[in-house]
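quick one before i forget lol
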Amino acid sequence: MTVRIPPENILDKILKLFGKERQVIIPEEAGNIYRDIGPYVQIKGKRENFLKALFRKTERKEIKKEGQ
């Protein structure tokens, strides 16, 4: 199965200025399509909503200092 990723647009460039990125969402029925038709399927992914990506909290990775 091939997942086609939509091209970036101006909204993605704005998010990069804030240090964020939109996720690509794969449709839920992709598993059913793969099971019915087989591996030779192309599915078009969808980008996450701009506002959700903008206001989503970024995960912080805590760095542990050596010796603690």
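fyi Residues 10 and 50 are 11 Å apart (CA to CA).
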